[in-house]
Amino acid sequence: MTGSLPKPTWRCIRVAFGHGSAVDMNDSLDETCGVAAEMAQSPEAAHQLVDLKQPNGQELAAEIQAHQAAFVYVHNQSCSLTSDQIPNLQDLGLLEAFASFVKGKDAGQSAPQILYIDATLPEATVEELAEAGIQYIVHWSEEQPGSQLIAAHFGHAFCAALRNPVTTIPEAFAVASHACHVHLGSKPGPGQAPAALPCLRSAQTPALPSNISVPLPQLEGMDLSQGIAAVVPDWDSVRLLAPHAELRLLACGQASLIAPHRLSFLGEALRALLVLEVRQLTVTSQTPTHRMPAHLPAGCTAMRCEIQSASGACAQVVLGGPQEVLKNPDLVEHALRQTLAADALSLQFKLPPPSLPVPIAQSSDDIAGGALVVDALAITSVWVVQLLRMLCSVRIASSGC
Predict the structure, then answer these.
(1) Which stretches of 275-399 are assigned E, i.e. beta strand?
(2) Of 25, 85, 108, 170, which sits 20 to 30 A from 388 (CA to CA)?
(3) What are the Cα distances from residue 353, in Å, to 37, 88, 173, 251, 356?
(4) Cis (ω within 30 of 0) for the bond into 8?
(5) 3-state secondary structure at position 162
(6) What is the pLDDT of residues 183-211, one digit of tens each?
């Protein structure tokens, strides 16, 4: 899929600039470097993270060649989790050398796919890097620099989204932007200043995934150019049998999160996460149901299916449809990808009734590292609850918490 990092091989180079010692650089990993901290916690066996302190262009090129790095992250080693403005990258010589390296004939497959710069850059430098052939450049605008706190939050969300092997870089950028808007309280509309977030320079526009991003299956002897319904009889009778459920979430933040515009961003980000998980799911088992659902069309049957999402989380769902369709494992898998992606988009947050007070933010050492959390309620399907619970378990286990 275009724009996704070559995973599970995460080979990344972290470049620090500015003043500070090597000890400062290592100590700041978990606290201030959202991108690098997320990379360092990546569970992939082939993960590599190489640290470089103020290298010159030749040293950076050599490390990229040696490690076949797909991701180069440049940051200020003296940054902190504060509202201080993101710094300027004053020494542009490194990036000029980087651009020359990518242009070089000897770069070959060693050219990184993404350059992420946690600093403000002149537009001319961004253009030079793009013209050199770097596909994706994340940077901060000189006209609208953000804070170091926002930069850390965005970096964590961006790289966390890229842990999913089917997520494209523009999709990860869109998810991270929505995650930041939840906390920034950004409001669209006339007179509203947009929140200061990074920019993405690429040929693709950042956008959240939708159910139309589910890829068509490769079925022998079938031309699916006109859609699967055109060649598979009674395809429109296939349906997901998914009972609704209430989902209680603990969202990190203040009670001000429970507001329509903030929950709107949170809902869009969560729906996107679910689509990313199920659009290339695999079916691990399927068995006929003991009882036939009464509301299925005549001639249809139902199968109970165990699924595994792109990140390895599991859930159980029931799919109904014509017997000929459910006999074909490839059609069952595609039907579940389509129907679950569409069902994921139905998740909706519920605001407390006007007569009730907004939930109070609370904290516990056992939850989110002691950060403030607030209750949020969403209406969704049972499989979503199963999947999210499993994803949280996988993440906690991989981080060693």
Answers:
(1) 282-288, 300-308, 314-322, 348-350, 373-381
(2) 170
(3) 39, 46, 34, 19, 6
(4) yes
(5) helix
(6) 886 665 555 555 689 999 999 999 999 98
